[in-house]
Structure formats: C-alpha cells, structure tokens
Known about the structure:
Layout: H1 11-20, E1 25-27, H2 30-39, E2 44-49, E3 63-67, E4 80-82, H3 88-105, E5 110-120, E6 123-132, H4 136-145, E7 147-148, H5 153-158, E8 168-173, E9 185-189, E10 194-198, H6 203-220, E11 223-233, E12 239-242, H7 249-254, E13 268-272, E14 275-279, E15 284-287, E16 291-295, E17 309-313, E18 316-319, E19 325-328, E20 338-342, E21 351-352, E22 357-362, E23 370-373, H8 376-384, E24 387-389, E25 405-407, H9 419-431, E26 435-440, E27 443-444, E28 451-452, H10 455-467, E29 472-474, E30 481-484, H11 487-491, H12 495-499, H13 506-528, H14 539-552
Parallel strand pairs: 1-5, 3-17, 4-9, 6-8, 8-10, 12-22, 22-26
Antiparallel strand pairs: 2-3, 5-6, 5-7, 9-10, 11-12, 11-13, 11-14, 14-15, 15-21, 16-20, 17-20, 18-19, 23-26, 23-30, 24-25, 27-28, 29-30
Amino acid sequence: MASIHGIPKSPWRAIIESAFFASSVRKTSMAELYALAKKQPEVMVTSEPMYRPEQFDLPHDAKVLVSNDGGIFGRTARARRLVRTFTKADKDKYQSMLSEATYHLNRQPGLWLEGMIGLHPDFMIKAHLLSPETDAKNMLDWGINFIPFMPPWSDLYKESRQLGEPDILVLAYPEWSNPEFKDGLVIIDEDQNCIAILGLRYFGERKKGTLTIAWTVGVRHNMVACHGGIKKIGDKPPVAVFGLSGSGKSSITNSSDHEGTLTPEEKVTVIHDDAFLIDLDHNLSIVLEPSLFDKTDAMEFDDPVVKYFYSAQNMAVTGMADGTRRLVGKDIRNDNGRCLKSRDMFNHANFCEKPSTVIWLQKDTSLPPICKVTRSAMAVAMGASLSTLRAKGVENADPRDFERLVIEPFANPFRVHPLVEDCRQFLKLFKSGCECYVMNTHAVGMPGHLTDIPKTISLSIVTALVRGKIEWKDWRAFSGLQIPKNGNELFGPDYEKKYSPPTRHPGYLRFLRDRMQDRITFLSNKRDLENDMESIFIDPLVASRTVLDHILEPL
C-alpha cells in the first residue's frame, strides 16, 4: 500500500491517516467507483449520457447517476468543530469519538481514492479520500469535482512546485451516528491538512471540506483564499466577484455576453465560478477544480445544458414512454438540486493573472447597485463585513435564518483559518493596485419600500466597469465610497431616480447608519471577543459612521 506524504504531527492526523491502512481498505479507481455507484440501492441510473467519461477512464457509454440524500440536501455548518479552538476537555472528548468512528468504519470494506487539488504547477496538492464502499457515488463525484490521480493530471503534478505540505486527508463516514450530534460532526485540523466528516451524506460537505483545507494551505503560501468567480473580458485584466450562493456570483461569472452589453470582440474567458487562489508572489489566479458544482433550479426539461453533465445530486428523475429515465430540474423535488458539469460549456482557462478588479456582491438594501471603494483598508472592511441573505436550501439551517441579513466575511463560510489572515492577504492585494467595488444585487430601500435590482442592471454595471466608463463622485453620506454620476447615461434614464441614495431623507440616513453599525459591531466582536480582527480594518467604518453622525445631528 502506498504511503501518504508527511509524518503525522497531531493525534487528529494520526487517527485519520491510520484508518487508511486498515486491512479492510483498498485503493480504488474511478472505473471501480462508477461500477459500485451504479449498484448502490439508492442511486438512480438515468438515460442521460455522461459528458466525456473517457477522461476519467470510465466506459464510453457511462450515464449520469443521481443520488438523493434524504431529508438534508445542504451544508450543515453547525456540525463543524475546529481543532485549534479545543480546550483540553474538548480534545479528549473528540479524539475518543474520532477513534471510535474510525474503528467502526474499518470494520467494513473501505475505499481509498487519490486525487489532486489545483490546476497549475504553481499550486497542486495531493489529496486522499477514505469512505466505506457503500459511499461509492460520493467518492466518484469527489474524483470528478477535483482531479483523480491519473494521467494527464498526475504527469503535471510530478512537475509541480514542492509546497512542503502534507497531503490532504479526508475521511467521510456517512453511516456514523451519535445521539449528541444529530446533525453530524465535522472535525477539522487545518494545520495538519486533515478533516473527518461523520454522519453527513451531502456531497457538498466533502467538496467544501476539501476546499477548506486547500484554501488554508494557499494562505500559508502567501495566497488569497477566494470563494468567488473570476473571468477575463477581452484583453482586459481579470475581474473577480465574491458572493454566497444566490448573490449572482455564478450568473455574473459565467455570462458570455452580459445580456447583450458585450460586443463579440469582448470575448469572455471564464476561469472559475466558485473557488480559486490568488498567488501574490507569482501574479497568478489558480483554479482549484476542473468542473462546476452548480444549482439546477433554473434547468428546463430537455435543457441542452444536460449535455455537459457528469453527475447529479438531489434531483428528480422521471420515466418516459420510451423507457428512458430523464432528469427533472427546477428544484421540483427539493431545494438545492445540484449537478457536476464541465466548463466546456463556455470558453475557459485554468489560470490567469491576478485580478485588477474585485467586486463584493452584497444584499444590503442600504446600498445602491454599485459603489467604488477609495481606500485599501476600507475595501477589506467592506469584504470582511459582507452582508447578504442566505440562499434557501443551500444550507441545512433554521428557516428563520434565510430571512435575516447576515454578515459572511468575504462570502466564505468555509474558512477555518483565522479571519484576520484573510484580511491581511486581501489588504496586500488591494495595495498592489487592485480596485474594489461593492455591488448590491438584491434591492434598494428601507424595509417595506424596496426597489428590486434586476440581473440586467448588475451585468451592465460589470460591463461598464471593465470598459472604465463609469464616472464617480464622492458619496457624502458614506465617506470612503463613491457612486456613479453618469448612471442615467449608462444604465437607463431612470437609474438615478430608482437607485440613488436619498441622502436628504432622515429615515434613510438612520437606516444607513444602523447598517454601518452592524458591520462595526460584527468586526469589533471579532476583535474583542475572538481576538480575530485588527483595528486597522474597523477604523475606516468608524470614521465613516462619524461623518454620517455629523450629517444627522441637525436632522
């Protein structure tokens, strides 16, 4: 049996790594996983041809397989436990639980799949997944989502830069249960690049858990961890957009014509719509996954996009009169239907230079559709206090959480390294000349009096940004931000009437101040209660609130 690079330096890695070498575990291949997945009782074999199965050494007539996960079809953030936060009592408790879990996992046939994360020789790290044989479909999807350790990718890996990091280890045991952890348990030791995912069936836990470790490795090597999309338009430098699911991140990243506002000469090259790293030392933005893990809520029946599918999760399947089994989208069966599909559906690349433009996508109705941030520290502050609404179904959470405005720093709920480290890395990026913008993609106004922002406006704004056509003026009520002064000219004659902040309206100004204070309070708590923030990233917001206070005084 092959070894795993890196001698364990923590009990967590030692427990997880040892499980790979049990007599019950064998190395597997994508071909074996496909054959096993087809036989899983709960898996449905459709009549839809898998896109280019030969690249994974699968049969040329392989079909799209569908797995449904029962009552939970989203991530369960409350299951996560970070080793770096454990007390002595926590360590004893969770080490005992992890040891028990691996004992029971190793009492049944287990599979070991080797893969890689990263699509450029500057950043490629080997990864290993251990799961019971009964979880073959999730293992197959993990191999498709990342890169199975096979040619041509393994040849590129051999020529890649040595990072001096232990391989990533992922242990997933969906049959595990414990009455104290009804939502499952995820134990993460990011320092030793390992994670145990216990009692959770949803494929997204394996995908994001693996990315969590890869992002952390990147940060240790002076990179910026990015949960976002990045693209090039024509010969212009790249644009990166950051937002949670439902914010428009994928719609903006993957659009080839921005609702007709781009010309044929402004050819779009999509780098990725979900996960990448910015290497600050080598001026590179590097894709971490070759495929797309996309929602299928907008997929029509007989949609031509199905041609590019590799696999699907939590989707309906229907039988046709001719005996075929077809996929049904539109989230008819449940929220958050998902597919793995190829980026061949549009022009794409695996890397590019670092972005010259970063856009924070927010659902903060106190903000207009677009603002320019004028200072680097303020740019970080607005990203670290990114305000949004959670997309329904994407997470396994309290239904009331989907109605609340929440702050998710840099739109990355999967970060496990300290937040302040991301702040420092983004500050380096902005100080290197990258410009920052804030886009509200939801609606403008106070509660009960909202004006929706259509996708066409958001896409036309990105087009104007890339072309450098927007003229800016200072926003008096929010010092440090600027707003367009030629919005009517670029985005329609009623743009300013609909979307300009009503800076003479006392009610709106107080609402804006409350939203500012929400950001300040969130970041201050990170600093004062968690020791995970620095004042340099709070002070710009405090200064802006002080200016607004002076405006409100006579009102």
